[in-house]
Design goal:
By secondary structure, the chain is an alpha+beta fold. It is built from five helices and 17 strands. The strands form two sheets. Strands 9, 10, 11, 12, 13, 14, 15, 16 and 17 form a nine-stranded mixed beta sheet that branches. The chain has an eight-stranded antiparallel beta sheet with strand order 1-2-3-4-5-6-7-8, with helices on one face.
Length: 286
């Protein structure tokens, strides 16, 4: 009887180990493009859910007011006694540096253990996450769908993150932003669309940013403010600007008019007047 019981226990343990191993391998093989859904989307928050075929769940959340991302995993108990056990929950804050529907660069921090791991990859919706740093706490369900779910969430929120700044598609948020007390916001061009990011604390900060780098684009509250930023963000003397009507941005959402600052290149020896060229900055308005 003892021998039979021992054989039974060994068989059960072997089966449990086989099941767990097979399950782990299956994480890499499951298609995920149809596993996502939006379960809440308001002016303030958007939440996306992913359910793995084994029942594990992922929830990605974006707070549209604070631009904070979080990720929660609910892992179903495995093994012979799972009927008597409860599911386990894991929560992570997500420090996003780059995020779009094409990929992600972020650091996940376990809320309870403070353990961190880094994800940097291009998402093709069949992705396997390549984590850098400590792997303890990197759950198989996150390997399966964490990066893709966050990228999918951002796409549905019409949001991107560039250099740690989260921005939203202009046509989606300008009606909300235009009533704020700021005249200028960061702007980003991505995929032919224009996204609006954080506000500049004052006008002078916007002018300095434009003057400091031709890579800086700005969204202005009005056309007159757009023109003012172009004039004061140029480095000509006197200030100058160009109302550009040959560039078009927006996928079916319309054309965004904008001004460009000008910079002085040289003095025309024949006239004694400055020669100006267009700077790359765009100062958009609607």
């Amino acid at each position: 009887m003892k021998k039979f019981f021992l054989v039974f226990v060994i068989a059960c343990l072997a089966f449990a180990n086989f099941s767990t191993g097979a399950l782990a391998n299956n994480f890499e093989d499951q298609p995920i493009e149809n596993a996502f859904q939006i379960i809440e989307n308001t002016e303030d928050i958007i939440i996306a859910q992913a359910v793995h075929p084994n029942g594990d769940e992922l929830y990605a959340t974006l707070d549209k007011n604070t631009n904070e991302y979080t990720l929660k995993a609910i892992v179903k108990d495995e093994g012979l006694l799972k009927f008597a056990s409860s599911d386990k929950e894991y929560e992570y804050t997500v420090d996003v540096q780059e995020l779009s529907e094409d990929g992600i660069k972020a650091v996940f921090t376990d809320v309870n253990s403070a353990e961190k791991f880094k994800i940097e990859e291009t998402v093709e919706f069949t992705e396997k996450v390549v984590a850098q740093g400590p792997l303890l706490g990197l759950l198989p369900v996150i390997e399966w769908g964490g990066a893709a779910l966050l990228s999918w969430l951002a796409a549905n929120a019409a949001a991107i993150t560039i250099a740690g700044v989260t921005a939203y598609l202009a046509t989606h948020v300008w009606s909300k932003y235009k009533n704020q007390p700021y005249n200028y916001y960061q702007a980003f061009i991505s995929g032919g669309d224009v996204y609006i990011g954080s506000a500049f604390k004052d006008d002078a900060s916007a002018f300095a940013a434009i003057k400091g780098s031709e890579k800086v684009d700005v969204w202005a509250k009005t056309e007159s403010k757009s023109n003012e930023a172009a004039r004061k963000g140029g480095n000509g003397n006197p200030p100058a600007s160009l109302h550009h009507t040959t560039e078009s941005f927006g996928k079916g959402d319309g054309y965004y008019k904008h001004w460009h600052p000008l910079r002085e290149t040289q003095i025309d020896p024949r006239t004694g007047r400055a020669i100006y060229v267009k700077k790359d900055n765009h100062i958009f308005y609607m």
